[in-house]
Amino acid sequence: MMLFSILLLGFFLGMRHATDADHVMAVTNIVTQQRNIRSAAWVGIFWGIGHSLTVLVVGGAIAVFGFVVTKRLGLSLELSVAFMLIVLGLMNLNATFGWFGDPKDAERRDAEENARLEWWLGRFRTGRALRPLLIGVIHGLAGSAAVALLVLPLIHNTVGALAYLLVFGAGTIAGMMLITAAIAVPVTFASARSHVIRRYLGATAGIGSFCFGAFLVYHIGFVEKLLIP
Predict the structure, then answer these.
(1) How far apart, in whole angstroms, are the C-alpha atoms of residue 148 and residue 164?
(2) Is the CB of residue 129 less than 8 Å from the CB of residue 122?
(3) What is the pLDDT of residue 121?
(4) Rounded alpha-carbon distances, angstroms, from residue 226 to 9, 61, 68, 71, 220
(5) Are 100 and 12 in contact (CB under 8 A)?
């Protein structure tokens, strides 16, 4: 009964973990480029799969081999997430304003990629599937998944610990799927009403991602003193 309660807690912690600000900011940048709710939900699923795989590997190493994540390593991984948010923001802004090419060409490529994703929703060779998967992997490496790892000492056997990590991952996938679908509802509605509104929703997401990433770089690098010798 105790193990069941911990596993149930793990599922809901996973769903809660999906709502972290850096997670939502990252997937919002991708979702604003989607054409419908279904493809947006799959963005969340692929993100959750990537995130869960990393948490399972790292958590499994902790549970089985006693691997220790040092504070400096954890901050370094979180800094990689911050830089990733900056890059995602710039990519969205480029898709809107065409800084490095004609925005119509970017929109055409987006439409083609969405069509491929709809044709085969699990095919990793499409950019729409690979991008959220890789972003999820990077997020899983960062110390923000500590909420999953803090519970591991309460589980006194390896099988139970791995089961907890799997359930936590399932909760994260479910939570991110719901979040991306919810974000896609107003984006899809706006896209149907006005192409201009859709473009500037993407630009807003890009600006938000860039600013949040820059704030994280400052906080981790200088407040937490990772970049200060």
Answers:
(1) 8
(2) yes
(3) 44
(4) 33, 25, 18, 10, 6
(5) no
